Amino acid sequence: MASRHQLQTMQFMDQASRSRSPRPDGVHGPPPPTPMSSPFSSRKPRVQEGQPTCVNLTPIPHTDGHLWRKYGEKKIKNSSFPRLYYRCSYRDDRNCMATKVVQQENDADPPLYRVTYIHTHTCNPLPPAPTPASVFTEPPSAKAEHHAVLFRFSSTSGGHMANADHPAVHHQQWQPAATTMVAQAHQLSMMCDDEQQAAAIRSGPPARRLSMFRAVVDGLRQMRSSAPPPSSTVVDGGWDTFSSFNLDTCEFSIDDELLCGDLMYSPDSMQE
DNA sequence: TCCATTTGACCACC
DNA sequence: GGTGGTCAAATGGA
């Protein structure tokens, strides 16, 4: 029997496959041959060198603030799960070339997905949604001279904001991992601010809550491993969930009880 | 009628 | 030649 959190996760998944029931397997015959003589003559290269990509490991791959249209699904060798291909819904309207690839990593509860984002969004949907792409629309700074990295996560009444404000975060080496972390934090923020999501989190086992928060920390850990910062401390700007993260010890500390949505966390609750 | 999803085919890359 | 990314017809719900 599925847990409440599992059901919530399934609801997230359903957003990607909403409204359309699958066709019966094998009901329709093989499609006729492609009528065009060279239908793929305008096909773009599969891999465009130098395009910005980042990888996000998340249990909720379909909640990142952007609208995606699925355009393909592929069974991948040596993987029990198909790979799903999405592109931005504004691809034609706004010439947004952002795409993402979702690959389920395991069958855990909740299952973990590897989401690979390719290209940054140029569609700038309204209201602006906090997504990895929206955070890193500025070109990466060539200078990473600061001695601390400031992350700011805030949840406002009108929507969610997630920013990595420090110029060092824009350093190219940090971008993928920082993007992952920001996306994780934003997903967690959304879940905590949503009444049903928060209820599911609250009713779940503490270990699951802890694992969710650790997903955020893991993003920071990736940042640290990809490019050690000039300073050892990440200072949180106030996303109400964690206050600081020590890049040397890979630990984050909680100053006091923290409010995330209607959930109150204390330092003890963050222990195993 | 519109539009998103499904799914097999096609094709580029290794 | 195998694998994976993309296309586009078919499908069906809104």
Automatic annotation (TrEMBL):
The keyword Membrane does not apply. GO terms for molecular function: DNA-binding transcription factor activity; sequence-specific DNA binding. InterPro entries: WRKY_dom, WRKY_dom_sf, WRKY_plant. It is found in: Nucleus. Residues 63-121 form the WRKY domain. Residues 1-55 are annotated as: Disordered. Pfam families: WRKY. GO terms for cellular component: nucleus. Residues 1-19 have a biased composition (Polar residues). Gene3D superfamilies: WRKY domain. Keywords: DNA-binding, Nucleus, Transcription, Transcription regulation. PROSITE patterns: WRKY. This is WRKY domain-containing protein. The lineage of its organism: Eukaryota, Viridiplantae, Streptophyta, Embryophyta, Tracheophyta.
